[in-house]
Model the fold of this input.
Amino acid sequence: MASKGATRRTGTTPDVSTLLSESVEFLERFVVLPSPHEPLAIALWVAHTHAIDAADATPYLAVTSPEKQSGKTRLLEVLELLVARPWRVVLPSDAVMFRKIAVDRSTLLLDEVDAIFGDKAGRYEALRAMLNAGHRRGAKIPRCDGQTLQVREFEVFGPKTIAAIGDLPDTVADRSIPIRLARRARDERVEQFRYRQVAREAAPLRGALAHWAKSADKVLRAARPSIPESLSDRAADGWEPLLAVADAAGGEWPRLGREAAVALHGSLAALDPTTGVLLLRAIREIFHDLSVDRISTGKLVRRLVIRDEGPWADWWEEKVRDGNRRGPGALLARLLRRYGITSRPVRINGTVRKGYKKAQFQDAFSRYLPPE
Done:
């Protein structure tokens, strides 16, 4: 790794590979991150905030933790010193938020987002709409100007980090790179964060990133980086500008960037499957365990109930025990219908019953589950 400051000579084009490495070092001085993939992804995202004009989509950084005091706010403080035009805020008003993003083109660093999505009164409806729409260039939210009574469309596209306790709604998590923090263990050490001192240290790095972004604008606009096939379409959209930065850096960064993308989104899928995906996975395993190509609705419900994984026992055990299978069967049919799977008469051991054939599930298995 090049020595600090080696790329910041006046009149030279910064070496973005070194700037990325320095960004990783800077992050790890003050925040404990769970694996090497998170600081790599964050460093690429930081560089992307300076080069946002070259991108048509931007991924959010979803910084979550199961409990308080896990380093979320500290990470936002560190990012504030590195990103382009930072705006670190908690629960901004609609008017301020729209003008700040549309006019100042700020990088939003939004803390305590769990309060926004836990709100039942609709006070933060505009903020939720902005998070749902602001990941793609051209997204606008119309608002009526209170003084002129004229409708104005506010641009909401731009880089955003959102920090929350617990999980984010699927609509936001789907647009995000997951950064899952945990409370620091007693044997994990970080430097004390003295804001003024650290801000002086970070200023040359942020300036060099801004200088690099200007020089790399044409290259990044023309970039068409290869995307790992395992990423979903939404994740691929978000990672494309980050992988363009990684490819521009060269060296190990193209490989490291793609490994981080696959690792982070793979872990998210493993940790937080939807109920539908859990159901498909359970049904595939049931077909495999029984070595059959068809199954009745009643037997499928019973097999789901006795499984350890999934909410099926909580939902249906009492009804199945009482001999009521129509209720669970109807809910099962409703869950499967979204995947184009419907129950039908099937012949099993000479008797025709309502049920499912394994062939009906093959398309959904191939689309939503990893290979067996």
About this structure: The chain has a mean pLDDT of 87. The chain has 16 helices and ten strands.
